[in-house]
Each structure stands twice: as C-alpha cells, then as structure tokens.
C-alpha cells in the first residue's frame, strides 16, 4: 500500500458518499477546525492505483512544542472487516504522523456496534460489528472511554422509504401533533442567518434550562462559512391571522357535526346516551378551540417558534442543534420542523435523518434521557457507535495527549 496526501477535492470525492461517511470527515470540517490550534491533512491509501481507505487527520498544534497530537474525527473511512487492510493502512498512517512529529492518534469510527430499534433493543439477526474492536486491537489501537464525540445517536433510516412510510412509524403522539399543527397553519421556512442573535437567544434558553455549555457566536459563523451550501438554518413559524382563521374553520366543522347529529337524533337514528356523550365532547372541543383562539390572538402577527441548524451533506441530514422559544414550548412545533426536514431529506435522496445525540440509554443517570424520550417519537433507530480508540505512538506523551483532547471543538453536549 502507498499512502498519499490528497487534495481536498480528491478526499471529498471519496469521503462524502462513503458508507461510513460523516460531516466530520470532510474538507468542510477540516476548514472549520483549522486555525491556531489544528491543522488538517487528507490522506488516502492506494493499492494498484485504487484508493482503498482514507482519512482526514487533524493535528493539534502546540505552541512552542513540536510534538503533535493527531485525531481522525469519525475516521478512518475503510473496510473494518478486512483486518489486514486495516493494519496496513494504520501502519502507513502511523509513519505519516511520525514524519509530522506526531506522538499520538485518536479515532472514533462512524460505525455502529449492533442494530437496535427505537427503544434500544438489540434486533435479532441484525448487524453485529464486534469484529471492529478485535481488528482495531490487532492494529494496536486501545479502546478508551468516550469523551469527545456522542456515542449514542437517534437516526431514521430513509432508504427505499416514502414520507408516508416514515410518518406511519412515528409514535401516535407525533402523528397527531404533526396533523394538528398542519391544521393550525404551522409552517417551516429558511432562517436568515443575519438574525443569528435570535438563534443564539434560543440556544441560551436551552442552556439555562438544561445547565449546558453552549458554543459561541463565532462557532456558528465559522461553521456556516465552512459548510456554506451544505448547512441550513430553518425556523418553524405561524402567521396569527391565518391560525385564527383556521381555528374558526375548526369550530365551524364541530358546529356542523352537532347539527347533523341533532337531526339524526330527532329522526331516532341514535340513542339518547350516545347523543348526550357526543354533545358534551363537542362542547368541550369548542371551548378548547376558543381558548386556543384567544391564546393566538395575543401573539405577534408573524411568530417564529423555533430554529434548528442542519448539516445536509453526504449520506444524511443531521439535526445538529436548535431549540424552541420558551413561550411556545407547549405547542410542540418541533415535530413540524423535523417532519418537514425528513420530507426534504427523502426528496433529495439522503439515506438517513440523524436526530443526533441522545446519551447512553443504558445509563439510569443519562442526562439526555428527556432528549432520547422525545426523539424516539420519530420511530428511528438507536445507534450505538463503536467509540474511541487510541494509537499510542510515543508512550512518553500519552498523558499529555489525552489531557489536550478537551480542546477539540466538537459538537457534543457538555454539562456545566
């Protein structure tokens, strides 16, 4: 095998649609990470002029120190079933890192351990990738505790599915909410990034609610610039007059149903007990709709309820971050936002819709349990990734290397 440095274009041509591809194994992520702390390298392994494996490598640049720490976020992009290929590629990457004064390498491949359903139950007869840990060990990698990237994700498989197929797999609550929001007139539109402070205000609310540390404005500005064309900010909103008009229509429909029922009752087509029960139900429904109408009448004419950020690149659409304005939380508008983006993902040929981080669902103290309980309403699969592995090149620097990895500016929830 011959290891070569690749141009950004050469690397992306291989990486973006690779089965194990991730937005963090792209030149866009490399551009985002480059600066005074990291430098990005793009390497590929060739056999008979055919590329058989590749990785974007980030080197941590320590001021006044020549020793470098390397990290392949969501790498390598290679066939992990082929032990000899993995060992050979690792050895060539190791040589490359040594040439660059590297002393340590961390990887966390974007490959799941085993198939699980939305409840996290292991699927009999599904994928079982325990060989990955074995083959990585044979390539001299050491399994370590996961600290940098989310290991547990919620993801919807969209392959060969229509929006109706996916929607029918939503929980009853999610389906009812999407239908209700559509009747009310909730819609989704592009968010103008010039108003990024509004997005940050929502993220700050989320941070205060869950006691998390949030990225800076510069983080989002740099991310937008780096992924330009493959990043979307979308907001869910309503127009007051339209919603009130829709509620009036709903009230009229209930009144018409009452009139038809009254006529049928007088013509002896139903029992008195049934008639009274349905009348009471409809009276309560009218009262509920009137309360809803009163609530919306006090809202602004064009109300933005929430904003989310999505990476749309390679195999998947990733719902990376976002939130709902606190005063609109009870309206469950996020269901509409995700439904519309799932539809977008299907229409544009993406294989997955990634709802992202859910925390370790096997841990009773999982701080992201509420996030998991919400996301499983979309009927996706729980993804447990194989986790982080270290390749110690110079043992003298191992402790130092692991100390500096918290400097990595990733996208993982960090609690205060």
TrEMBL record:
One Pfam entry name: FemAB
Any GO BP: peptidoglycan biosynthetic process
Gene3D superfamilies xref list: 1.20.58.90, 3.40.630.30
Any one GO molecular function term: aminoacyltransferase activity
Keyword Transferase part of the UniProt annotation: yes
Claim: Cell wall biogenesis/degradation is one of the keywords in the record: yes
Domain of life: Bacteria
Keywords of the record: Acyltransferase, Cell shape, Cell wall biogenesis/degradation, Peptidoglycan synthesis, Transferase
Record family assignment: Belongs to the FemABX family.
Protein name as it appears in the record: Peptidoglycan bridge formation glycyltransferase FemA/FemB family protein
